[in-house]
Design goal:
The complex is a heterodimer of chains A (482) and B (210).
Chain A lengths: L4 E2 L8 H18 L1 E3 L2 H9 L3 E4 L2 E3 L2 H10 L4 E3 L8 E3 L3 E6 L5 E3 L6 E3 L2 H13 L5 E3 L9 H15 L3 E5 L3 H15 L2 H6 L3 E4 L7 E2 L1 H13 L3 E5 L2 E2 L7 H22 L5 E5 L2 E4 L4 E2 L4 H17 L3 E4 L10 H17 L3 E6 L1 E2 L4 E3 H19 L5 H4 L1 H7 L9 H6 L15 H6 L5 H15 L7 H10 L10
Parallel strand pairs in A: 2-13, 7-20, 8-22, 10-11, 11-12, 12-14, 14-16, 15-17, 16-19, 19-20
Antiparallel strand pairs in A: 1-7, 2-4, 3-4, 5-6, 8-9, 17-18, 21-22
Helix pairs in contact in A: 1-9, 3-9, 4-5, 5-6, 8-9, 9-10, 10-11, 11-12, 12-17
Chain B lengths: L1 H10 L2 H13 L4 H22 L4 H24 L7 E6 L7 H12 L3 E4 L6 H11 L3 E5 L9 H10 L7 E5 L5 H6 L4 E2 L3 H11 L4
Parallel strand pairs in B: 1-2, 1-3, 3-4, 4-5
Helix pairs in contact in B: 1-2, 1-3, 1-4, 2-4, 3-4, 4-5, 5-9, 6-7
Classes of the chains: A alpha/beta (482), B alpha/beta (210).
Chain lengths: 482, 210
C-alpha cells in the first residue's frame, strides 16, 4: 500500500503566486547571479551565453535557464536491485526515505549517543530493507572510524549489500566518486547497464546564498558526463543565508538548484537531474538550524509546487525533528512536516526516517517509528476512494436500520485495504497493555527494531560479484556477513 | 473430512460448514469427534490468530457464525449421544440502553465457542432477565451497558436474581465501555471482560472449564 502515490492535494501557493516566484527566480539568476567557483563550469556557462560579473559571479540569461529546464527529463527513474523498489520520480508522485549525513547514533541497547560506524550503515540498511514505508536508502551515516579516502566506496558498499532499495549518497572525494561509480558498475553489470538502470545516485549541494562550490560542482560535472542521476539540493537557512520570508528564501533556493541544473545540462544535455531543497528556517533565538519547524514543511511544499510547475522531479526534505530523542516532540514535528510535504507531492522526500537533533543523530527505534508515521501519511495521501462499491448503497440497504456491518462480506473485503494497520501504535485496552509490560511507543519500537535486526535477511550481492568487489577494492572494511 | 470442516470454519463459510457436518454424520463419524476435532479445533486456531493480531474481529465472527451453523446440525446428535452443551447464556443490554453492537459481538463469539445463547436484545428490564434466566435454566446471565447512566441498572438485575432465589445457581458477567473490573466487583458480579474474545474465556472460566 502506498508506493509511488500521487500527491499534489496540498498547494500552499496560488497559481499567480507560482508565476511571481518564477519571475523572481529568473530575475535573481539574470541580475544578481550565482557565484560559480568551478572553472570548468564557468567556461561552459560563458560559452553558452552567460556573462561574468566579476568575482566568479555568473549572470544566467533567462533563455539559457529555460533551455536547461526544457532539456532536463521530467521523469527520472531510480532503480532498486529489485524492481519492486524502483522509484519513478515525476509530477506529484511521492516517495519517502532516509537521509543524513549524521555523525552520531543513539545506541539501541544503552540509549547512549555514540559516533556512527560503517557497521551502523549496514545495520540501518537492513532495517530500512524491512520497513515498507521507507522507499529508498539515502546513506544516512558517516563512518567515523575510516580515513576520508576510504569513506565513499565503503559507504556505498555497505548500502548496496544491506538492502535492495535504491541507494543515494553524498560523496567526499573525486577519487571516491570514481570508485563508487566503478563499484556500482560491478553490481549493475557494466557502465551501460548502470546508465540504463541506475541503482545508485548522487547528491551535490549548492552553498547558500547563491554559490556553486568548486569541488561539488566538479563532482556534478563528472556525474553528468557519466549520465547518472544527481540531486542538486540548495540549503538555504531563511533569515541567515536567505531572506527571513518563506517566499524570498524559496526564490533563492530555486535560483541555486536551477543554476546547478543549467551546468549539468550544458555538460550532457538530458542528464537526469533532480532539483533539490534541504532548505529550512533559522531559529532566531540562537541563529541556529532547525529541522522540525512547521515553516520548513510549508517552504518545502511550496518548492514542490514550483518543481511541478517546471515539470522537473524534486528531492525534498521532511519528517525530521530537533528533539534529542524519540519523544512526543519528535512525533509531532516529524508527522506534521512529512504530511505537508507528502500531500504537496514532492517526489523524493529524504530525511523522513531516522534523524533527530538538527539532523546530527539517528536512533534505530526512530526508523521504526518513522515508518509508522509515513504509513499514516501515505494513507492520507491515498485519499478517499468513491466508487459504486465503496459507496456501498446495496450493503447499507441489506443491513438496514439497527443491523450491523461486522460480518458483511463488504467489511471483510475492505478492512485490510481501507485501513492502515499500525505496528508501533498501541490500541489495546488498558488491562492487556499492562499485561504486555505497559511499554511506551519508543520501547515498543525498540523491540521491533531488535527483532528485525535479528530476523530480517535482505537479499545480498551475488557471491561472485561480492568477491570481485573485494578483490578490486581491498579497502572495503565491512566484515563479511554483517 | 474433519480437516475440510475445520477449514470451512476457519474461512467462515457457514453453508459449507453445515453441509460438511451433515456429510460427516452421514458417514457415521461420532458427533463428539466432529465437535472436538473439527469445530473446537478450528475455533482454537481462530483464537490464537486473534491473539497474535493476525485475525481481525470480523474474520473471527464469520468463523463463529460458521461454527454456529455447524452446531445447529450437530446439536440434536450431541444431545442424543448424551454430550452436554457447554452452557446456556442469557444476554442483553440493560434497561435504557439501545447500544447493542458489543453485546451482539459477545453473543456471536459465545455461540461460536459452543455455548447456547438466548439473546434478549436491547433495553432488557430486570424482570425480563430474571424471567428468561428461569425459563431457559441459564448458567450465565450477561449484561451490557454503554452508558454510565444505564450501567446503574446492572445491580438491579443482580438484586432481582437474588430476590427470586436464582442467584446461587447463575454466574453473572458484565461488560461495556464504562464498566470496569472494579465496578463488577463492587456490584457483586462474578466477572467482567473487556472484549468479546475475553468474554468467551471468562464464560468458560466461570463454568469451571479452564
Amino acid at each position: 500500500m502506498g508506493v509511488g502515490l500521487r500527491g499534489g492535494i496540498y498547494r500552499p501557493l496560488r497559481e499567480e503566486e507560482v508565476r511571481r516566484i518564477d519571475e523572481g527566480v529568473m530575475w535573481v539568476l539574470g541580475n544578481v547571479g550565482v557565484q560559480v567557483n568551478s572553472e570548468q563550469a564557468r567556461e561552459l556557462l560563458l560559452a553558452a551565453g552567460a556573462k561574468e560579473k566579476g568575482n566568479n559571479v555568473i549572470l544566467f540569461p533567462e533563455k539559457l535557464v529555460r533551455w536547461a529546464i526544457h532539456k532536463a527529463p521530467s521523469k527520472v527513474v531510480l532503480y532498486g536491485r529489485e524492481d519492486r523498489h524502483n522509484l519513478t520520480l515525476e509530477d506529484a508522485r511521492v516517495y519517502f526515505g532516509t537521509g543524513g549525513t549524521v555523525l552520531y547514533a543513539l545506541d539501541l541497547e544503552t540509549g547512549e549517543r555514540r559516533p556512527t560506524t560503517l557497521v551502523d550503515i549496514a545495520q540501518v540498511g537492513r532495517l530500512v530493507d524491512a520497513l515498507e514505508n521507507v522507499h529508498f536508502y539515502l546513506l544516512p551515516l558517516y563512518p567515523n572510524e575510516l580515513p576520508k579516502e576510504q569513506v565513499d566506496v565503503n559507504r556505498f558498499y555497505a548500502g548496496l549489500t544491506s538492502t535492495t532499495k535504491h541507494i543515494m549518497g553524498g560523496i567526499y572525494t573525486m577519487e571516491g566518486l570514481r570508485e563508487v561509480i566503478e563499484l556500482a558498475e560491478l553490481v549493475a553489470g557494466g557502465a551501460e547497464a548502470l546508465r540504463e538502470r541506475p541503482i545508485v545516485s548522487f547528491i551535490t549541494c549548492t552553498v547558500a546564498p547563491l554559490r556553486l562550490d568548486a569541488l561539488y560542482t566538479d563532482f556534478l560535472i563528472e556525474i553528468a558526463k557519466r549520465g547518472l542521476p544527481v540531486a542538486i539540493p540548495s540549503e538555504v537557512l531563511a533569515g541567515a543565508t536567505g531572506p527571513m520570508t518563506i517566499a524570498g528564501s524559496t526564490v533563492v533556493q530555486l535560483a541555486e538548484t536551477l543554476a546547478g541544473l543549467v551546468v549539468a545540462q550544458l555538460v550532457n544535455p538530458g542528464t537526469p537531474v533532480i532539483l533539490g531543497t534541504v532548505s529550512t528556517v533559522m531559529d532566531p533565538r540562537r541563529a541556529g538550524y532547525l529541522s522540525g519547524a512547521i515553516e520548513m514543511g510549508l517552504m518545502q511544499a511550496g518548492v514542490a509546487q514550483m518543481a511541478q510547475y517546471y515539470r522537473l522531479p524534486l528531492y525534498a526534505t521532511a519528517g525530521m525533528s530537533d528533539s534529542k530523542l524519540p519523544d512526543a516532540q519528535a512525533g509531532y514535528e516529524k508527522a506534521l512536516t512529512a504530511l505537508l510535504v507528502g500531500m504537496a507531492g514532492a517526489n523524493f522526500i529524504h530525511d523522513a526516517a531516522g534523524p533527530l537533533e538538527f539532523c546530527t543523530t539517528v536512533a534505530y527505534e526512530q526508523y521504526v517509528i518513522d515508518d509508522e508515521i509515513l504509513g499514516m501519511v501515505l494513507r492520507a495521501i491515498r485519499g478517499v476512494e468513491v466508487t459504486d462499491d465503496t459507496l456501498a448503497l446495496a450493503v447499507i440497504a441489506q443491513v438496514g436500520p439497527g443491523g450491523h456491518f461486522l460480518t458483511h462480506p463488504h467489511t471483510l473485503k475492505y478492512m485490510r485495504t481501507e485501513l492502515f494497520s499500525p505496528k508501533v501504535s498501541d490500541r489495546e485496552l488498558r488491562e492487556r497493555w499492562e499485561a504486555q509490560g505497559g511499554l511506551d511507543a519508543r520501547e515498543r519500537a525498540k523491540g521491533i527494531a531488535r527483532r528485525l535486526l535479528k530476523e530480517h535477511r535482505p537479499r545480498g550481492l551475488p557471491l561472485e560479484v561480492d568477491e570481485e568487489i573485494r578483490r578490486r577494492f581491498p579497502k572495503i572494511a565491512l566484515p563479511k556477513g554483517v | 473430512m474433519l480437516e475440510k470442516l475445520k477449514q470451512a470454519v476457519l474461512e467462515g463459510d457457514s453453508e459449507r460448514a453445515a453441509q460438511l457436518t451433515k456429510e460427516a454424520l452421514e458417514k457415521g463419524l461420532e458427533p463428539e469427534r466432529i465437535l472436538n476435532d473439527a469445530l473446537v479445533a478450528a475455533m482454537e486456531v481462530v483464537g490464537e490468530e486473534y491473539e497474535r493480531g493476525d485475525r481481525y474481529v470480523p474474520e473471527m465472527l464469520i468463523s463463529a457464525e460458521a461454527m454456529k451453523a455447524a452446531m445447529e446440525v450437530l446439536r440434536p446428535e450431541l444431545v442424543a449421544a448424551g454430550v452436554k452443551p457447554r452452557g446456556k447464556v442469557v444476554i442483553g443490554t440493560v434497561e435504557g440502553d439501545l447500544h447493542d453492537i458489543g453485546k451482539n459481538l459477545v453473543a456471536m463469539m459465545l455461540e461460536g465457542a459452543g455455548f447456547e445463547v438466548v439473546d434478549l436484545g436491547t433495553e432488557v428490564t430486570a424482570e425480563r432477565f430474571v424471567q428468561a434466566a428461569r425459563e431457559h435454566r441459564a448458567d450465565i446471565v450477561g449484561m451490557s451497558a454503554l452508558l454510565t447512566t444505564t450501567m446503574t441498572h446492572m445491580p438491579e438485575v443482580i438484586e432481582a436474581l437474588k430476590r427470586e432465589g436464582l442467584r446461587d445457581g447463575i454466574k453473572v458477567m458484565v461488560g461495556g465501555a464504562p464498566v470496569t473490573q472494579e465496578y463488577a466487583e463492587r456490584i457483586g458480579a462474578d466477572g467482567y471482560a473487556p472484549d468479546a474474545a475475553s468474554a468467551v474465556e471468562l464464560a468458560k472460566r466461570l463454568l469451571g472449564e479452564s
